[in-house]
Amino acid sequence: MKQFISRFSRRTWIIVGVVVVVLLIIFFANSGGKDVAAFQTTPVERGDLVASVGATGSVRAKQSASLIWQTSGIVQAVNVEVGSLVSHDDVLASLDKTSLSQNIILAEADLLSAQKALEDLLTSDTARLESQAAVDKAEKAYEKAYNWRMQLNGKIDITDTWWEFGVLKSRKYKGYASDETIAQADKDLALAEARLDDARRTYGRMLGGADSAEVAASRARVAAAQSTLNMAFLTAPFYGTITQANPAVGDQVAAGTIGFRIDDLSHLLVDVQVSEVDINSVSLGQIAILTFDAILGREYHGEVVQVGQAGDTLQGVVSFTVTIELTDADELVKPGMTAAVIIVVEEVRDVLLIPNRAVRLVDGNRVVYVLMDGEPVQVKVRLGSSSDTMSVIVEGDIKEGDLIILNPPSASGNPFGG
Asked: SS3 breakdown of the chain: % helix, strand, coil, rounded to 5?
């Protein structure tokens, strides 16, 4: 026997040993039936589910403007810097008057002249004011005549007077007016109405006549002179914060040069593109959670303030613009930053949940596989709300604690969601 063993080399025995080990592994694997340990399982649990839509976008201010010089010149004064808060019509910078073109310099004189002419027209417009007063007077006379005529349609106070033994006596009583009295009242009312019509026509001619045209022309001259003069200044168009400031005193600027950028940082928005598949689940007022790569460890919140009603197609994909306004932004959040946005579209509590990865599609039905007595058992289910990882079980023979197979046999069907 020893001689027989010695006839084989050590290498040969190693090869033989490896073959035997492999055969033993195959034997025990086949003889033991299905290996339960090969299935990954997780118990069905109750919990809360938050369904959300995710997207990315850039921060922008609700109002933003770049202020551009309208003429060339030398900067004489700069009144603000980056970070300054400004109000509407605040002067941010101005040009040296001596460096401006002649028409801008003369605009100051033209403005004073036009303002004086307009003031004279408005304060010396005696005819128009008298005409307006005549209309007011005629309206009061017409109202008095009309009221008296209306009284004559019924009983009125009548006073009779007579002399008796040299003494003037009178008696008051309710009665109807005579025909002569009514006829006279009709004449008085017609005359008052005619005078009112004449007064109104006269006043209308005054408003549409030469005086009114002169006033309009004078106001136009004031506006034109003011507009020309304003070219020497940059003013704030709304309340906001200076986010860019380019000019410095002594700089030579040209028309079209950007001087400042102003943003209303009190209202910051993020525009994101939402797929047509998800857009109908997004609505006004839904809350959003925002994170920024530039701000580590911080989470911000927002609210959906606008949902686009028309989609944009890019490379065959249709998406809709959804706008979120930040509700707790601080000085760290700046326009232009990229934000990762999660819009919470639905939130349900205390429901049965299963992982999406466990759901399969078999013969048009969604199914999961439950491990029972070491064997996978197919169970049809109907799902409700879903998040990226979990879904709510609305219907199906599934109860809390059942072991759901995460990796059922490949013949079981295609994974949920493709």
From this structure: 35, 40, 25
412 secondary structure, DSSP code: G
Q: Give the span between the Cα atoms of 290 and 331, in whole angstroms.
A: 15
Residue of 320, 274, 268, 321 whose CA lies nearest to 295: 268
Q: What is the pLDDT of residues 194-232, one digit of tens each?
A: 998 988 887 776 665 445 566 677 778 878 888 888 888
What is the distance between the alpha carbons of residues 187 and 192, in angstroms, rounded to a whole number?
Answer: 9
d(CA 323, CA 306): 5
Please give the C-alpha separations between residue 61 and each of 54, 270, 271, 321, in angstroms, as whole numbers.
Answer: 21, 9, 11, 16
Whose tokens are 């209308």? That residue is 204
Number of Cα atoms under 13 Å in the Cβ half of residue 39: 23
State both tokens at 278.
């998800």
Residue type at position 169: K
Per the CB < 8 A criterion, the answer to whether 103 and 228 are in contact is: yes
Q: In angstroms, what CA-CA distances link 57 with 85, 206, 309?
A: 26, 60, 18
What is the reported pTM? 0.54
CA distances from 351 to 281, 388, 395 (A): 20, 16, 12
